[in-house]
Structures are given as C-alpha cells and as structure tokens.
Amino acid sequence: MGFDRTGANADGADPLAAPAPTTAALRDGVTDLDPGVARVVAATFLGDAEFGAPFLAYTPRWYRLGLAGPVALATRRLRRVAEPFVERAVAAPAEDDRPSGVAPDGVPPTGPAYSLPSDLHVGEEAVAGVRDAGGWAAFERSFRLADAVLHTEWFADVARAGGVAVPSDLVDRTVAESAAYYTGRRAALSPEVRRFQRLLFADDEWVRDVDTSYRLRSTLFGVWEGILRRERRRLERRDR
Asked: Which of 9, 59, 113, 185 could form a disulfide with 36 if both were Cys (CB 3.0 to 4.6 A apart)?
C-alpha cells in the first residue's frame, strides 16, 4: 500500500521487514527482546487474543456456540503469552532513543478495541440480516464481513506498533465501506479500499501455514482458508 515506515527500533532493527531473527527467538523461548521488537510481538499476540470474541459476534448462533469455549481459552492463553513482551515494551521509552511517531506515545499495546456489529454505521440489523439468514451461504457471507472489518483493525494496530504509518482515514473508510459492501448496502468497494482488502484477505496463506506448521490437519482451518482464498481471488479479479 506504500505506507511510510520508520521501523521499530532506533538501531535499525525492524521485525516487520526482517522477521526471521524474531521468529527464531520466539521458537527458542526468548522473551527479553529489544523493547521495540517486543512491542510488535505484544501487539500481535494481544491483537490475536482480542480478535476471537468480536469475530464470533458476526457469525451465526450455531457457530458462536461451537467456538465460544475454544475462543475463550485461546484468549486467556494468548494474553498470558503476551505478558513478558508487554513488560519489555513498557520499558521502551527509557531504553532507546525512539523517534517520535514510531510507536504512538510510547504506549505498549493493549490490543485493539474491535468493532462490534452495533458499532458499525450500517447498524446491527444489517449484520443480523447477513448473519442470521440461515444456510452455508449466510455463514460464508458473515465470515467475510467479520474478517473484512476486524482484520483491518487488527492490521492497523500491529502495523502502527511496528512503526508503519497507517492513515487513520483509510482505516475508517475501509471499515465503513466494507461493512456496507459485505452487508449488501454498497455495490462495490472503492479502488483503494478494494486493494487494501485484497492484501488483507491474503491471510488464507497464514491459516494454511499454521495448519501445516503445527500438523493440525484441521477441517476447521481448511474451511477458513477456503473462504479467505476465494474472496482474495475474487478481489484480485476485480483489480485486473
């Protein structure tokens, strides 16, 4: 998207541009990361931790009931995993010469406040019209709606923690347009928002990598990947 970047650290280390050292450290159980890098790691874990419950609010009742327990467990575990990185991030302003704006106000991440259906300008009834229509098609539509809104907010939070200047007006427009588009209140996304969403829907690759890396062979992950991949490809066709 061409966002401006300053990196996460005054010493030039950038866990977004060069993630391999951070990934290796996490695999080895290392938690005493550079505070700037710890901020990005903490933002990622906390963003994931807070993601599940709002996502379920967009999905049909049968799905919410089936996933409520596992989501609550994942939330607790991810918050616990994030704790040492949040502590390191707290120390960041005192431990380096971070440029202004690299990490907003030097505040460690607490996870984004995700939009619930009632927060959207289209109104909760518009979401309910998609979510509660019944059948598999309604589930897919509600899943795409939830991902389009919440993944935008997740990305903005994590990217800013890593020193990426994500324009707030683009985030607001993307959430508003996507809510209208995926509830049938809008015929098409604007070109910039469509491109942003096309890149965000590439999380089908992340789902596949998680399933493969941990040898889960999960049917549920396969369903998620399929929905995301089909939407990404559809958005790609619109961009041609």
From this structure: 9
